[in-house]
Design brief:
alpha+beta; Antithrombin, Chain I, domain 2; Alpha-1-antitrypsin, domain 1; 11-stranded mixed beta sheet; 20 helices; 37 strands; globular
Length: 880
Amino acid sequence: MTPRFYFALFVVGPALCVAQQIDPNTLINVFGTPSNYAASVNPHDPAASGVPLAQALPVKPINETLTDPDYWDIDELPAAAVADYDKFDWSLTKRLSASSDTNFLLSPLGLKLALAILTEAATGLTRSELQSVLGFEMDRVAVRRKFANIVNSLQYKSPQYVLDLGSKIYVENTAHPRQKFAAVAHESYKTDLTPIDFHNPPAAAKAINDWVANLTQGRITDLVHQDDLENVVVMILNTLYFKGSWRHQFAPNATKQGQFYVTPKIAKPVYFMNVKDKFYYAESAKFDAKILRMPYMGYKFAMYVVVPNSLTGLNRVLDGLTELRPEMDLLQERFVDVTLPRFQFEFSSHLDSVLRDMGVRQAFEDTASFPGIARGQSLQQRLRVSKVLQRSGIEVNELGSVAYSATEISLVNKFGEDDDTAVEVIANKPFFFLIQDETTRQLLFTGRVADPTLADGSFKHLFLAVSLQTIHVNGGLRSEASRLNYFDIDLLRYCAEERKGNVMVSPASIKSTLAMLLEGAHGTTESEIRAALRLAPNKQEYREQLNVYLQGLKANSSGVVLENANSVFISTKLKMKKEYEQMMQHVYLTEVYKMNFTNPDADSNFINKWVSTKTHGLINDIVEPVNVNPSTEVLLANALYFKGSWKHSFDPKLTKGACFYSHGVCKNVAMMDMRAQINYAYIEELRAHALELPYEGGRYAMIILVPLDRDGCPVLIRDLPYMSLDQVVSNMEPTDVTLMMPKFTIDYAENMVGPLQSMRVTSLFSSKANLSGIFEGGSPLLNSLYHKIHMMVDEKGTIAAATSAAMVIPLIENGVQLKVDRPFVFFIRDNNLGLSLFEGRIEEPTLYVEPIAAKAPVPVPVTPPPTTTHSPAKISYARI
């Protein structure tokens, strides 16, 4: 049995809200009836029917002596925190909010406490990364003292609120915990180590779930299942439960239905609460938003609500979230008319990718180091983090709030001025909120309310999409003002990490296909596609972005030919929506064909002929007759063709056999040779050599990244998201280079559903897909997206070139000699626009074949004229 370390924490995440009329008795059951509520009710007052009249009145503290006389809320705003431990909270919230446009709820404190305990057990680079991302000082004693103060403050009990913070470490009863770790966990984090028999999963799961349910007031009852406990050695649990009553409560009988603008054009009916009283408030010019502080009873906790002034202004707030704290310090007491929707939601979210993006990477790798937890860990028993899961929920109504969170981290074995003028805060549009401990200024919860209602889907039709492309290279693509580049790196990463051998994709072709789908998408499907492509939230804005992008996919010169074509083949039995058809033609430059799909042979031949024409004969058979039948409703296709000639040609006479090392095996491949002054740099952050091979004209080029280590290509691809291709290019300088790189030819095909799902485009391929904007009377879903490419790189030119790993030897003339003798990464991109046409990883170049001896020597020209060669062809098609 392989031992595994399991770590669990409680946190919050995004979700949809449920809005409904709250029964007054439910409010009392949830929050209880304060003892100083008046009991008198006028039975003749219809408005008071079933609702105690005094319930609408603000509740005053029962024992004023429990309040801190120095508490800032009485006089002024708090001073800055001693340590900037909240930087992690803001950064985490900002990254999570950028992942989608839906509701989310996060407990930064719950996750931070768990990671702090984990940091105590870490060493080396693993510990350094955790310290850096969490913002911890190097002095461990100072960190422990800080957290001891935070935990002690949160454990203060009051009859006016409930704050239960729980932390426990379950250890397999055969293990031997280190006494120092146990002492630090207890003294600084109030966390005890408890022995448990993980070899009895049913009993262990029950014990753990009972403990969690008790501390979360029954809100989380099934955090772990017995299947999760197989081979577990250690589990660390952290829970956070908060229940508070508003100091200025909303009157339940004043709650009325109103319109909440989910988008500028979509409004949904929700129940709005209302209260008029003195609050701390500010109008922020920086964020063009109103900031409101809503205190809870007990003079310790408060909720802050940030409501943008415009219907689309929340992104401005979230983009600048790390600068919100100074704006919160500008609040002044004013008389405010507050209108806030009731909301309630729960959510579970995996945070490992977010933490990786923030810089916590070593903890997830095989080289992670956590020796501080228990004795007896051999090199074969080292642990790494495999999962970070957050579960949370929140309920906000007239009397107050309930919020709770859980985080699970699994470690596995490596194998204005005060006046009488009232201001209004009307939260009838997406808004941001946070719950803060006012004495320590720790963020207990952060979240976004994007839609206080529950959405549902409808029946979906079957949809199939395929991505093809043709590229005839010697070349690339770019827009300095566009964030579309991030999609390119994500796509390469998720295509390459689970696949061996050569990998090649065309982000330009796939983006063209996704753009056509995005135009007909709504709801979550639209949000996921738009987020993956990093497009603006406003449809008109991203239409302009994509139109500029597609317009750039064309070139025709003596050295480079670039052509992009989109097409929609729609069944004659369907009626395409007029707006969608117009957008396809005018924005996405797409041809529309009507077909009856009753003759599979003829229909597939027609589509394949279109593909063959657009790819100049490089791809001839993207669909088979079996793929086209009467059930087919819509097929979307994209074809991208690129043909280029090297600006500095390789001399064919110098091509010879040489070793190329792939997975430790030497293969005799055809290695080309060229000497020229080209852009080059060694990128320390990537541990890789970077080289630019321009095509004729200079606009297009192939960027080659060669890892320093012979087996370093997987790490290089994982590191690329942390350093953009633009940054790599900016570091290059003209250098005299002797380059030896292999020839290669690729015929590559892959269903892109898996990689796109890893990029969080999931609903598109499920029954929840919402593509209702394509045609009348239905919404299709996508079950496949095939990507097909043909590519050839030789002495004359290439469709996509890549280099991995290299050997660099300084030359006398201040140049370098670069031998690409191991797997490498390449990009073909447009230097003017800065966007990638093709990208890939080469592990299997063309094998070397000895040339047949000629009868007579063939003269070699001194300067070979530039010639062209077929590049990869790629096409994308989607069948609905």
